[in-house]
Design goal:
It is globular and about 65 Å long. The strands form 3 sheets. The chain has a 4-stranded mixed β-sheet. A 4-stranded mixed β-sheet has the order 5-6-8-7, with helices on one face. Helix 3 crosses helix 4, helix 4 crosses helix 5 and helix 4 crosses helix 6. It has 6 helices and 11 strands. Helices cover 35% and strands 26% of the residues. Strand 7 and strand 8 form a beta hairpin. The structure holds zinc ion. The site of zinc ion (ZN) has 5 residues, from helix 4.
Length: 240
């Protein structure tokens, strides 16, 4: 979920079958190799900065069956929707679908009432203005929800007294969250569309990085202690 100070290159991995896989290789400060298949079918390999290319190729080849299965899985996902920001459109918040109800008026505001997102603005027929108002609302909710969950989880006794870390919000296309070596946690604003238990999983994952920076056995042992069912949540989280 975290990879920074990175640089990337495209790589074609020839397989014994005569086929090949195009992968995106990202080198970053980490000790182990990891592979990820995104919903747009991009295959990404994260590798330590000094990892020899032969080791990377070998790693991809050994994971080819898993990669093939992931590619089949993402092919079944519906395509990312192009949002119109019009009356009656469905938008998601904390895992629930909300209907957009657009009203003409002022002051400009957005409120959530009984599963409806009521937006009041002077030009409700202008999708760009609706989008701006809605994004502001999502950002405010994300900031509120994430700060509350971060404060809650950082008090978990396993962490042994963590100061709630600094939180940043960003729209990210490739990850849900990250943790910098300076201890700043960045969360994807779009995460607020997911169920609370999945938001919690991402937050706990990043909090564990404040204690163990690498994805090592010690890191996963810590994660197991805080959230024993994190694997189920990890699987339930939609890929981005
Ligand atoms: Zn991580």
């Amino acid at each position: 979920m975290r990879c920074h100070g990175e640089n990337s290159q495209s790589l074609v991995v020839a397989l014994a079958s005569g086929r090949s896989l195009s992968v995106l290789l990202r080198r970053c400060r980490r000790r182990t190799l990891a592979i990820h298949v995104y919903r747009d079918a991009t295959i990404e390999v994260r590798a330590p900065i000094a990892c020899p290319i032969a080791t990377v190729l070998d790693f991809v080849r050994r994971r080819r069956v898993w990669v093939k299965r992931q590619l089949e899985r993402v092919a079944t996902y519906p395509p990312a929707r192009a949002l119109q920001y019009t009356q009656g459109e469905h938008h998601r918040y904390l895992g629930e679908w909300m209907v957009l109800a657009l009203r003409s008026g002022s002051p400009r505001q957005c409120r959530l009432i009984d599963g409806r997102l009521l937006l009041m603005l002077r030009e409700p027929s202008d999708p760009m203005r609706v989008k701006r108002l809605l994004e502001q609302w999502y950002r405010d909710r994300a900031s509120e929800v994430f700060a509350e969950r971060l404060a809650y989880w950082s008090e978990h006794p396993v962490y042994g007294g963590l100061e709630p870390p600094s939180l940043r919000l960003r729209r990210m296309s490739r990850r849900w969250g990250s943790c910098s070596s300076q201890g700043v946690i960045t969360l994807n604003t779009g995460l607020v569309e997911q169920r609370l238990e999945l938001i919690d999983y991402v937050i706990v994952h990043e909090l564990c990085h404040l204690r163990v920076f690498e994805h090592s056995a010690r890191f996963y042992a810590l994660l197991d202690k805080v959230l024993p069912d994190w694997r189920r949540r990890h699987r339930a989280l939609e890929p981005i």
